[in-house]
Amino acid sequence: MSKYIKSDTDSNIITGKFESTEQENLIKSLFKKIDYEILSTTVNKDEATTKVKITSVDMLRVYSDSMKQVMAILLPQAFSANKPSDDEIQKMTFQYITNGINDPDVAKTTTEVDLKLTKEKDKWVIESSDELTNAITGNLSKVANK
User: Fold this and answer.
1) Domain named DUF5105: which ranges (predicted)?
2) CA distance 114 to 131
3) What percent of the chain has a predicted confidence (pLDDT) above 70?
4) Which residues pair with 44 in a beta bridge?
5) 135 close to 53: Cβ distance less than 8 angstroms
6) Is 79 helix (H, G, I), strand (E, B) or coil?
7) What are residue 138's phi and psi, to 5 degrees?
């Protein structure tokens, strides 16, 4: 994706820089589920706007369902001597979310986005936006804000 997004973008999701293997696996699973349809394009010299319909995994629902499963495991262990470490909890959480994404019946969400493109060195690049990031990640940033 970083080949098509404007080079000054610093989003880890877009640049492919991940904090852990679990995060990388989750994002790769998420991106495998993206579908898109170009609805229209308007070009004016070295600038263009493209309306795109993007369908991706509904991360709000996946996250909510995954947290219910994780909490059902963690609550009984909260007062035991064998409670998991923060690292184990994080890995378990990523695994449940990744499993949710990979579910063949996972809920999806569709968003229409206006992409702004500019021509750089005879190549069209997309200008990153929060709207685009939300669309391709199934509103993942809204999950982060919860």
Assistant:
1) 28-135
2) 9
3) 88
4) 47
5) no
6) coil
7) 60, 40
